[in-house]
Amino acid sequence: MIASSVLAGLREVAKQLRILTCSGVRRPLMLCRTSYDPTGGLYLTTGWWNSANAITALANYSRVSGSHEYLPVFANTLSAAQSGPQGATGFLNKYYDDEGWWALAWIDIFDLTGDTHYLQTASEIFQDMQRGWDASTCGGSILWSKDKSNKNAIENELFLVVAASLPNRESDEPARSMDLNWAPKEWEWFQKAALDENL
Predict the structure, then answer these.
(1) Residues of the chain whose pLDDT is less than 50?
(2) pLDDT digits (tens, 9 = 90+) for 89-135
(3) Spatial contact of 151 and 143, defined as CB atoms under 8 Å apart
(4) Selection from 98, 176, 183, 104 nearest residue 144 by Cα
(5) Quick one: DSSP state of residue 199?
(6) d(CA 161, CA 46)
(7) For a surface tag, which of 63, 105, 118, 153 has the fewest beta carbons within 10 Å of its beta carbon?
(8) What are 172-179's contacts with CB under 8 Å, separation 24+?
(9) Where are the alpha helices (DSSP H) in the chain?
(10) How far apart are CA 117 and CA 183, in angstroms?
């Protein structure tokens, strides 16, 4: 009984989102269409990590609206953004927060399309992010950059979300088990950091 009422509530939310999507996002979607650079696979004026956010927004729009319009954009970005003038091979650069935004974008697009190339890309990004774990400062967590400077909340929040998301989608049991260990480890660090004024 509870499950059916929850399901009915979710259907109503989805219906309202479709109404909002159709009426309230036409202008932002037009900007997404006109500011996309297919050669570089990124959005003009947004920068590297912001393009990941734009791609995520389009994936969410596509899921809610049922649109397939942006599937070619996702495929093109996967290829072109790695080789374009502003891009980075494997979506890896020197900032772990940037990588986290891209990992989440590819997870969302995998959820939308079921195409394992997107999930594999997210997994490879996450493998690189794991190299940023630094137990020598603040009792753990990942660094902001590969220059080993600073630790901030955002890259660790992104790391936590990716660590919690990937294992729910991975079919390779060894990879799933390894990735599954990171979310509790990061969460424990957050809990400790929140209680320790010296961190």
Answers:
(1) 1-2, 6, 10, 13-14, 16-23
(2) 999 999 999 999 999 999 999 999 999 999 999 999 999 999 999 99
(3) yes
(4) 98
(5) -
(6) 23
(7) 153
(8) 175/123, 179/123, 179/126
(9) 2-24, 26-34, 48-65, 71-83, 96-113, 116-130, 153-165, 173-180, 182-195
(10) 23
